[in-house]
């Protein structure tokens, strides 16, 4: 068993260039080498495949023996990390293995029918496969360092590789970011003089551009998530730079234009410390989410604060590399920090995690670029985002709401989710990866695995006596600081709510309207806290007629106050369902409600937070002075203690 490493250390931090992290371009190279060394700890001779210990659970391979796709993933995805290092040092040696020789040898094994890694040409396969994904990745690497990976190959191998890879590129794909895999395969070999399907290439380019929804966001058919960034907003500008400007200048210009729009919203999705939010599928790709920030160094844009972009990118990298749970057996876990099965999808194997290596393609940005030379700064967090206030970035085409909370330096997102889970081909699209009411950088999501316990969602006891969460949301509007959605229960459309989220400087005020025609037994949960510094403490306070539950884990405090409609408040302890620690706690409010279609019922709830060690004032715990519900229940007027008023209009 390879020796397990601890965490990545920053040697000789540069506090002048990077006063917040100490991280420079050299440290990015060090981080890439750190991860590559972990992968190569399994390579003792050039023949050894890039294969890692399987993590127990739903990830593949699910049968003993050799899985060619697993080997292909390990090869092509670790190559993302090796590429920028090889570009600067083609003689790079890791674990006494010449890295360039290793990857060229294993590329040749893909073409050898006697090899366990052999990939046969697509032939009569009429559906897209994971092989296409990995060949797309390989095409990116071939495109970036052809002098290392392509040119030294014998002509016979070049021709065989072209035949095999083109057979997949010139074929079916998935109506999502997958089209880029075809695009890169066809573009690379077109550039090398091989005949390719030009019509299909242009079709996939146009269809990829059609996914754009504005404000830097692409839709990944059907969801919004980080694939917009580690796929569309990475492949798009890189393809434009390598091939688009040469062969498809109009399309390249559109990709670059879409990329420039990122700066107005995406940086605000990261916390003050540069932490990413746990949100969406493929969470094990982690800091690959930050690749658009260094790529801004390829596009001349005077509106970019490069010091802030580097601060975010370095911060999100350190968020994981300096977490002691990140590596197990020298390899990143499938999870968020440590291994976390609820966030794993069955299409992943252990080597899938190296998709995060896309971030290191940022090293291809010249050393002289302002992305590397600008002085690191906090950007909007140090200027426009002031404590005591709340700030929104609403994306009016994707209906994404990004909210920043300067009081705790956290970011939050509300985004699309409307996928059924029952009998679904991909039930993870309806899971906690997407179905939470909101996602916050300070509070990673907890799964619903414990009976009757929920974090940042509603659950309902359905007809099968199973606790079922909201997953079918319909966005209505974002108006005057309030985010409106309707929701209905998948197993019973008679259970329906109008939802209204009003973010506050220290939390969220929910004013939700039950319009169900059936009775409901329901639970609403706050964010969950992991146990970190001793036991999570619980406190109960009385404020007028309200009972307030507070939990504190030594880093944050969470408070929940039922203002209207709820019958009981409880603190729920759970084990094994939080991504940060084995023990966690969450505050839940509960109610059993009569049918409300004819007489809608209002459920008002305060979900508040503060940093640990800070005292709660009565004004902070009760920012609402008065709730006035219209007789027809179609609107609610909120009078706040600070004199502000809000009108909720369903």
Automatic annotation (TrEMBL):
It comes from the Bacteria. Residues 24-377 form the DUF2264 domain. This is DUF2264 domain-containing protein. It comes from Filimonas effusa.
